[in-house]
Design a protein that fits this description.
Elements (H helix, E strand, L loop, with lengths): L4 H7 L6 E4 L3 E5 L7 E7 L14 H18 L7 E3 L15 E5 L9
Antiparallel strand pairs: 1-2, 2-3, 3-5, 4-5
Bound molecules: guanosine-5'-monophosphate (5GP) and zinc ion.
Zinc ion (ZN) binds next to helix 1.
Length: about 110
């Protein structure tokens, strides 16, 4: 999708610090981390928000979380814990309209989130 920042990351037009990649998904470090580890996991196809998810995306979204689980184990924060977040639209603070899972780790997380 034209003018989508994360589609440009997928295309390689914008550089990213990749953590994981396969045919369908990409994970890379957030440019402005909010925790010692802050990874974004995205599908390679353009889906703007959680509101745009369809039944046919179910397996793909499951794969994002399986990748998050694998990264957590590989980087050793599975036992201590970590947080996954999807912001949807303005009131949740979504700023990039290509669906992404934030994966935050390496510090104690507050609850409720701000
Ligand atoms: P949102 O606010 O939409 O939930 O999250 C968007 C995230 O993308 C933010 O945490 C922001 O720091 C990150 N981000 C924005 N532009 C870039 C970029 O060009 N590269 C990377 N790696 N992260 C970005
Ligand atoms: Zn996109």
């Amino acid at each position: 999708m034209e003018n989508c920042l994360f589609c440009k990351v997928v295309a390689g037009d914008i550089a990213s610090d990749k953590v994981y990649e396969d045919d369908e998904i990409l994970a890379f470090n957030d440019i402005n981390p909010k925790a010692p580890t802050h990874i974004l996991l995205i599908p390679k196809i353009h889906i703007a928000t959680l509101n745009d998810l369809e039944k046919g995306h179910a397996e793909l979204i499951g794969k994002l979380f399986l990748a998050a689980k694998r990264i957590a184990r590989e980087q050793g924060f599975d036992g201590g814990g970590y947080r996954t977040v999807i912001n949807c639209n303005r009131l949740a603070g979504q700023s990039v309209f290509h669906i992404h899972v934030h994966m935050l780790a390496g510090r104690l997380m507050g609850w409720p989130p701000g």
